[in-house]
Amino acid sequence: MRTGTWQDKLAVCLIYLVLGLLAVIVVYPFIHVLSVSFSSRGEALRSGFHWIPRQITFDAYKEMLKYPFIWSGFSNTLFRMAAGTVLTLLVTVCAAYPLSRKEFPWKRVLVMLLLFTMIFDGGIVPHYLLLKELHLLNTRWVYVLPHAANAFQVLVMISFFRSIPDALVEAARIDGASDLRVLARIMLPLSMPALVTIGLWSLVYHINAFMDNLLYVTDQTKFVLQQIVRQMLIENRLDAFTSTVSEIPPAPESLKMAAVIVSSLPVLVLYPFLLRFFEKGTMIGSVKG
Amino acid sequence: MKTMWKHRELFALYLFAFAFFLVFKYGPIYGVLIAFKDFRVVDGIWGSPWVGLKHFEALFHTADFYRLLKNTLLLNLYLLLFAFPAPILLALLLNEIRSRFFQRFVQTTMYLPHFVSWVIMSGLVIYFLSPTTGVVAEIVKWFGGKPVFYMGQKEYFRSIVVGSAILKDIGWGSIIYFAALSGIHPELHESATIDGANRWQRMTAINIPSIMPTVAIMFILSLGGFLSANFEQIINLLNPVTYETGDVIDTYVYRVGLQQFQYSYTAAIGLFKSLVGLLLILGANITVRKLSRGESGLW
């Protein structure tokens, strides 16, 4: 490795170059977005590369904060993040704990029942009709309840529970602890890494999800942040903004980019935690179920 | 019965959790029945009259169906050909680098797009590819070319989908392969170096074979979402001009089924897609098991 021929050195240089270039390609758009969101009207409308705004203004953000649906969007997104994650963890643990116990009868069949949902899906229309019959359309619960049933997460949890030494459980059983007590006192405290991982998966899912909004919710007060941003960014609907902040209203580009930043706030706040736990978590997930 | 009573607490837990699966995963499977019925909202799923395979026959007789099938298959095939190996390649390259700092830097930046929604990703793709505001147009002009309205050109649609899919998840996808590569015993590399193997030979003889089991599992898992994947992405990038190459089964079912209320007909297309997906994942699992002599595979 150290004693390289010139071909070897050239190869290493090329690898550095390719990776560096890739990193720049991936990161540049986000710098551009930040720059344009803070730019004055003339600056934002200029085409080409944007790195640092020459003149920083907050007009786009001021405009954004006056838009009422941004706030309801925030509260709906936070609701689904909180309620969704709690429920997901609850259901995942309840399914995984029995299936991880060796003495639990008909385990194979019961696991299969969950696995099947991973490989066969009813399709969009039956989902829609089901939620309609359950009167979940146009409610905030439609974001939370269906997501709780996730077979992949159950598999991850099962394999984590199984990695906890059996001797601990047996000792507790001999002392007369019930199954629930074993779960609450031994398994859960020892499973914190897995619980955090699955919790963060769920959080990120809920921050970014918009399909269930698009399919099942038409009431704009129940829209999540991503759907509000979608209307501005993809459907180009900026008519809700009546600019009165300054004489020169912010450019539509600035508004769009500010919306991108605002809607990414939850992720940006969580990002440091995400990185640390997700790398570990993906490895837990890679263990064969 | 006796064993059930003995494990009543465990059963109660399982039943509570299974109730969610029953309602939200098996419920829609029951709803698939409407593909064989003429669904009327007032009669409900069970009360609507049976019509047998009428909707499937209608399906196979329309040109739309073949366009959708072709688009869905082609798009997923391209994704499998280009987007699936991309993170493996990235992990192999990252693994060749000795500088820990540079490694961390590249990894941390490349994870970023994974945490951004497809709404934002697609919005940015549209924005950057625009002929007036887009940076891409600027680069094309710089090289003396003429910028095109890429999003309004049906020829570019699949490349845009595949390209943006790679950009979004290449970094994130590489984690698992990178972990597999870090798990290789250094002695293997040392002895190979002593035997005179160069960088390339060590990569093809040690690194790549070592991560093959991981690749196989990821391959089957990605087939699980085959034909359904990228709905969130495509629905944001698609516009009427690109329907011809970009409209896939899911986007069509959403548009025609839910927005134009053709429930039964589109449920039939959805069911067809689910069945093809099921066959694919079963087939892939059998193949992988055979190739690895029963050592790999999901079950």
Automatic annotation (TrEMBL), chain A:
Keywords: Cell membrane, Membrane, Transmembrane, Transmembrane helix, Transport. The chain crosses the membrane at residues 12-31, 78-97, 109-129, 141-161, 182-204, 257-278. SUPFAM superfamilies: MetI-like (SSF161098). It is a multi-pass membrane protein. GO terms for biological process: transmembrane transport. Its main location: membrane. It comes from the Bacteria. PROSITE patterns: ABC_TM1 (PS50928). Signal peptide: none annotated. It comes from Paenibacillus aurantius. This is Carbohydrate ABC transporter permease. It is found in: Cell membrane. Pfam families: BPD_transp_1. The lineage of its organism: Bacteria, Bacillati, Bacillota, Bacilli, Bacillales. Residues 74-274 form the ABC transmembrane type-1 domain. GO terms for cellular component: plasma membrane. Belongs to the binding-protein-dependent transport system permease family.
TrEMBL record, chain B:
Keywords: Cell membrane, Membrane, Transmembrane, Transmembrane helix, Transport. It is found in: Cell membrane. Residues 69-284 form the ABC transmembrane type-1 domain. InterPro entries: MetI-like (IPR000515), MetI-like_sf (IPR035906), UgpAE/MalFG_permease (IPR050809). SUPFAM superfamilies: MetI-like (SSF161098). It is a multi-pass membrane protein. PANTHER family: BLL4140 PROTEIN (PTHR43227). Belongs to the binding-protein-dependent transport system permease family. This is ABC transporter permease subunit.
